[in-house]
Structure formats: structure tokens, C-alpha cells
Amino acid sequence: MKVKEVMVKKVTSLKPEDNARDALELLFKMKISGLPVIDSEARIVGMYTEKEILAYLLPSYIEKVGRFIYEEDPKAIKNKFAQLTDMKVAQLMRKEVVTIGEEASLCEAARIMLTQKARRLPVVNSSGKVVGLIARQDVLTAIANQ
User: Fold this and answer.
1) Which of 15, 25, 66, 134 is most buried (most C-beta within 10 Å)?
2) Region at 8 (left for phi over 0; alpha for psi -120 to 50; beta for the rest)
3) pTM of the entire structure?
4) All domains in the chain, ordered by first residue
5) Spatial contact of 122 and 130, defined as CB atoms under 8 Å apart
6) What is the rounded CA–CA span in Å between residue 113 and residue 107?
7) Calpha distance 74→47 (Å, rounded)
């Protein structure tokens, strides 16, 4: 079975110039963890996810010190959260995005998802334009129904 047979064809996406706070509200409303960021030519330019937002909100030294225990600063986090209103999606999105072709097999989609730790993959056609989205649940559901 191929990716194009099970992918979601109607893709909810964001634009790089969208407001970061509004985009986060959309994630909350849809009860999902991330959305693709697509430019005016239907090409993928990033992924806007809860992970990138949390990385922005938390102190930058967490990355350097790993599991080091630190004193939380709720006021600083609250201030950074408020700053989302003045930011664009492009400022927070992950720019390195793993995609998959619409002709790829479901096994290939699962392999990429597992090795790249991706919850969802934008699906691109031979011209590189986004034509769908496939999530881990889509792959698992299709395999279970075969």
C-alpha cells in the first residue's frame, strides 16, 4: 500500500508570516501537536510544533546542561509566552523537515517516522509540492485494516 492511498489530502497548514500565538491556539483547538508550514508555492518550509514552542519558552541552558535541576522562573516563562503575540511562525518553526513522496510505501513511511522520531510527515509530489500529510496513526490504521 502506498502513502497516497492513506494520507490526509486536505492539509491544515500555517504560513511563515502567521502569528505564533494564533498558530499555537490553532494547535490547541485542533488537539494536535504540530502543523506544517507551507509557502505560497505549496512548498514545505518548516514544522511548527509544541516541541519548538517549549524549547523557546524554557531557559536556553537546558540544552547545554541536560537533566540539571534548576529553579523554575515562572515569571520569565510567562513573559516569553506573552512575547509569542509579537512573533511569526517562521521565527519558531523547525526548518529541517523530513518529507515523504506520495508513491512511497507505508513501510517506508513507518521506517522514516521511527528513525527520525517524526509523528507526521508532509507528503510531496514529484514537483516537491505538499499534497498531503501522513501521521503515525494513519500508517498503523492502514496496516491494521489490511
Assistant:
1) 134
2) beta
3) 0.82
4) 3-145 (3.10.580.10)
5) yes
6) 10
7) 27
